[in-house]
Design a protein that fits this description.
The protein is of the alpha+beta class. Helices cover 35% and strands 29% of the residues. It has two domains: 154 residues, Ribosomal Protein S5, domain 2; 117 residues, Alpha-Beta Plaits, CATH 3.30.70.890. The strands form two sheets. Strands 1, 2, 3, 4, 5 and 6 form a six-stranded mixed β-sheet that branches. Strands 8-9-7-10 form a four-stranded antiparallel β-sheet, sandwiched between helices. It is globular and about 55 Å long. Bound molecules: adenosine-5'-triphosphate. Belongs to the GHMP kinase family. IspE subfamily.
Length: 281
């Protein structure tokens, strides 16, 4: 039996460059692992894949992306046994925090350890890509530039331990819907990704916080104006900057120190939104 932490991610920037003929979009994003995590427990069983997950809105069957990851791993490496997966969810679902992708990444890493397969991360990332575009990043973790459809990864210097407050309105947003609704030719407010990468290298959190941009906000904020209000609330209560993560609806604020993040948490914790204090790792 083995237990792993499956960390969530936020986007420190998200730009869409083009729409491919197959419907996927080419992206340029700065990804960042955060401390918030699900816990994945894996156990050898005689055959097949079993999954236990009691969280609402998460399938506890072969539709769960963690189940698909386990099946792919058992098949690819011809493993003559099965695996039981237990998922304890702490990452909000359909929230722009890569909750499913990180569970899948942890299953790949965990099966590698449980069966002592000795597979290198690069090979696991190749298999991960067949399961979901964000899975390779979740295997790698840390601070990274993600390009292509999210699978071409360049590791960046670690952003350090930045205090964060996540605020998630109680709505789920379908990533597919957001991308389908995006009119690539009409995108404005693009991030200056180079500037953000230099700010991260220099440990300049203010420049990072003030220049973060996510072009998907145009779609999600239009449909759910509450997101824009949360961004403003975070700034009003002391955040250096605030932005929606991924396709939303989670918004995060970046803070100068933990005390300031806790102050904002106290101000917002009784709102109708889910508030989570965390930090980058
Ligand atoms: P991303 O940021 O990668 O777009 P997300 O954080 O917005 O992802 P997820 O939490 O991964 O979204 O959930 C997306 C959908 O996937 C949900 O509708 C959920 O039912 C389904 N799903 C399948 N497996 C999982 C899992 N292990 N954890 C969470 N959701 C899962």
């Amino acid at each position: 039996m083995i237990s792993l932490k499956a960390h969530a991610k936020i986007n420190l920037s998200l730009d869409v460059l083009s729409r491919r003929d197959d419907g996927y979009h080419t992206l340029q994003m700065i990804m960042q692992t955060i401390q918030l995590h699900d816990t994945i427990t894996l156990e050898k069983i005689p055959s097949g894949v079993e999954i236990i997950c009691e969280a609402p809105y998460v399938p506890d069957n072969s539709s769960n992306i963690a189940y698909k990851a386990a099946e792919a791993m058992l098949q690819q490496y011809n493993i003559q046994a099965g695996v039981k997966i237990e998922i304890t969810k702490k990452i909000p679902v359909a929230a722009g925090l890569a909750g499913g992708s990180t569970d899948a990444a942890a299953v790949l890493k965990g099966i590698n350890m449980l069966f002592e397969l000795g597979i290198e991360p690069a090979e696991m990332m190749r298999l991960g890509k067949t399961i979901g575009a964000d899975v390779p990043y979740c295997i790698m973790g840390g601070t990274a530039l993600a390009e292509g459809i999210g699978e071409i990864l360049t590791s960046l210097p670690p952003a350090g331990n930045i205090p964060l407050l996540l605020v998630k309105p109680r709505i789920g947003v379908s990533t597919a819907w957001v991308y389908k609704s995006l009119e690539v030719k009409k995108i404005t407010g693009k991030p200056d990704t180079k500037l953000l990468m230099s700010a991260i290298s220099a440990g300049d959190i203010s420049t990072l916080a003030l220049n973060m941009k996510n072009v998907l906000e145009s779609v999600t904020c239009k449909r759910f104006p509450v997101i824009e209000n949360i961004k403003k609330d975070l700034i009003r209560h002391g955040a250096l900057g605030s932005m929606m993560s991924g396709s939303g609806p989670t918004v995060f604020g970046i803070f100068e120190d933990v005390e300031k993040a806790e102050y904002a948490f106290d101000k917002l914790k009784n709102s109708k939104h889910e508030c989570i204090l965390t930090h980058t790792v």
